[in-house]
What does this fold into?
Amino acid sequence: MLKNRTTAEKLFDWGNIALMLVICFLTIYPIWYVIVNSFNEGQDAMRGGIYWLPRVFSLDNYKTVFQNKGLMTAMGITVAKTVVGTALHVFFTAMVAYAFSRKELVGRKLYMYIGTVTLFFSGGLIPYYLLIRDLGLLDSFWVYIFPAMFSFFDLIIFLAFFRELPEGLEEAARIDGANDFKIFYRIIIPCSMPVIATISLFHGVYQWNDYFTAVIFTNNPNLQPIQTFLYRIVALSGSNQIASMVPDNVVRKVTSQSVKLATMVVATLPIVIVYPFLQKYFVKGFMIGSIKG
It folds into this structure.
């Protein structure tokens, strides 16, 4: 009986491994398919039958992408809004969270209730658009930055971390004559690098992947990020915009589909490379404050 049960457990384990491999394949193969076809000559790829490796290797698709000034401008906007937006978001949210962590803050419970409500309810897109318009942020780079400077969800993560810091640190600083600003800059921020790295990764990934803000709030093509550029190529403009991207010397070697695939790779690759190295911070961010010693 014990032997049969052991055999059944082994079969169950092998079944789990097989299921995991199938799920991994179904997840990874579409990405691999896009990469392989982006490195294949466009006209040859139209014949189909390319599944594992390029049949006619070519870099013309990527040459077409990188020769397009609009895409390079979009990449610059994406990098700028990711760096600036993440830095301001982390600083501002951490500063507000530190204020919330002070027991002497007047109305702290009321502010927490109000902030919690915003996690579940919002005014909707139309009131939000009217607010952005009245603030003068339409067709402005700052439309990516100012509305995203604060997140109550991230404040909760900061708050849980700040509450775990020893109170003796602040008490010693106050004895030495430090005020709240000095305590925040000189003690709280240096001691909070794990949660700062976590929130930076959260918001950095959001800023990099965000395309909807530009679709709704900008009409200037010089302000669109790379994700919006890709969205408009794939979902809206189609082959007409891609045809304008292709130089005359490679027009016979690329197609609208091959340029789309190359653009997808260029837009996705940076964050895909960075994410595995920083994934542990996602887990750490959700674990902050969950274990009490």
Remarks:
- The two ends are 43 Å apart (CA to CA).
- Residues 84 and 101 are 26 Å apart (CA to CA).
- The longest helix spans residues 2-38.
